[in-house]
Structures are given as C-alpha cells and as structure tokens.
Amino acid sequence: MSTDESRFGAQGARAPGALLLCRAEPDSVAPAAQLLREPVLLAPAGDGWSVLVPEGKPWLQGREPVDRVLTGWATALAVAAPWPVLALWWDADRSGYTLASGFRRGVGYVWLADGTPAGEDEAMRTFAARLGLDPVLDVQALDRLTKPDPDADGHTRVRGLIAVLTRVGVSLPDGLTPGEPVDRLREAARSHPEVRQIEWAGLRETVRAELDVVERGTLGPRLPSSGGTEARLLALAQVALAVPFLVHGARRRSGGWLAAGAVLLTHGAVGLVHAVMRPRD
Fold first, then answer.
1. Are residues 191 and 212 in the same domain?
2. 252 and 71 in contact (C-beta within 8 Å)?
3. Residue 92 carries which DSSP code?
C-alpha cells in the first residue's frame, strides 16, 4: 500500500476521488475519451449527460494532485468538442469542481474538507450561465453553497452542486456519489447495465472512430459535415493550438495538458481529413 493510500485508512473515507460529467450522450463521448489514454468507465448520467469514472489513480503516480489531473482531462475533452465537461474531485484536504467549455477559460470552485468556501462567488454565476441554469432560482441555490454552513463538509457541498444540476438533466447512476474513493466509484460504475470500458486503442483506430462520429453528425458545428473553408480553418486552429499545449505539458510534466494537446492535435487532423474528403458543394 502506498503512503498516499495508507494515510487515508483502510476504509479510504478520505481518499481522493473523481468524476467527469460530459453534456453529451455516451456515443459522442466515447471517441474523445479514448484520447485521454487513460482507462475509464463510461455510463449514461441522465438526459443528455454521460459520466466518466477513472479506473486508475494517476494522481498517486505522478507529481500532480487530483484536482490538477482532472482539470487537464476536462480541458482535453472540452477543447475539441461542442459540449462542456465538468470535473468533480475531492481529496483529504479539499473538494471542488472545474467546468471546461470549448476554448474559454475554465471556471471552478473549491471547498476545504470541513466545507469552508474557498472560491469566488462570481465563479458560481459564470458556472450557471455556461450551463444554462435558471438565473434566479438555480443561482440562489448555488450561492448557498458559497456561504458558511457548519453542517456541510466538502463532500456535502459537491453533492449539493449535483442536486442543482438535476434541473438540467443530470442523474448520476447509483453508487457514483461524490466523496467516495475511486475503488468504490469503479465498482458502482461496473455494475451499471450500460457501462462501457474505454481504453486507448491506438491512433489509427481512434481517428477512424472520430471520423465515424463526424459522418453521423454527432459533433455538431465544431466539424461541419459539409467540409469546406470553415471546417479547414477550425481544424488548422486546433492543430496550431495543440503545439503550445504539448510544450507546456512537457515542460511541467503535466499529463493533463499533454492529453489536451493530444486531443486537439487528433481532432484537428480528423477535421483536415474530413474537410478534404468532403469538400463543400
């Protein structure tokens, strides 16, 4: 047992855990999830939502804490897809979230282990706006999560966030409860009747899967099915943006940023191939 695992005790009650919520159906999420090059479990999580459960614990193997790893993964999935990605994470000291959406700067909030708010109120309002939550009722519910509450620890705060998201269709499968360690989350995900195991299948198979998704039109406006100038410009922009992501990740030895660069590079390559194969009429 590693030092990090043993410090949380046999029950793992304060062990790190993480979930990724994608505002898309599993068929659209699966090809992009392969590009993380990490084994994950994919399951439906409500109307128009999917959840990714890590099978490994990369935050115990490298230099990055769980929040930084999950932020990198969320960015990697969101920068080249037409849907936002919400990373939920917790460890012995803190709990929080990061919302990644396209090329916009991510927004997030943090609570200490005892539930003490440690973020900026404006982040909650930006979060609500980007997910299309009710600007009055839902924002009021989110604001309560930023106020002192002696009866709410960090895990309770994240569960409160999920409760607000039920209004936009989120419904986590049984057992996928924020606050649980990865091992328990993995067990719960595996018991879901529609769960899929996602693993890196190699670049050729991943690109083939991406092209299939494009042909079926499930990536929306990010990769126009008609090809042409718009598609080529977007693809070139993705390839160009991938370079600084990869350089930054290599310099900081950050798996999350390397994943983001790899996703951008692959999506850009797929876009260029698709634009050439399907020119605008």
1. no
2. no
3. S
Residues 144 and 22 in one domain: yes
Domain boundary among 180, 196, 212: 196
How many residues are listed for the chain in this entry? 281
Q: Tell me, what's the pLDDT at 281?
A: 45
Query: What does the pLDDT read at residue 53?
Result: 97
* Whether 110 and 211 share a structural domain: no
**Cα–Cα distance between 102 and 117 in angstroms, integer?**
27
- The lowest-confidence range among 8-12, 21-25, 250-254 is 8-12
- 8 A C-beta contact, residue 131 and residue 165: yes
Same structural domain for residues 116 and 247? no
**Residues 97 and 131 placed together within one structural domain of the fold:** yes
Which of the four pLDDT bands, split at 50, 70 and 90, describes residue 264?
A: low
How does DSSP assign 207-246, residue by residue? HHHHHHHHHTTTTGGGS-TT-SHHHHHHHHHHHHHHHHHH
Tell me phi and psi for residue 101, to 5 degrees: -150, 105
- pLDDT in the model for residue 193: 95
CB atoms within 10 A of CB 177: 17
Q: pLDDT per residue over 214-243, tens digit each?
A: 444 444 444 444 455 555 656 666 666 565
Domain of residue 255 covers 202-277
Residue pLDDT, tens place only, 159-188: 999 999 999 999 999 999 999 999 999 999
Residue-averaged pLDDT of the chain: 79
Triad 51, 202, 258: Cα angle to 5°: 65
Residues 6+ apart with CB under 8 A from 62: 69, 253, 255
**Same domain, yes or no: 12 and 95:** yes
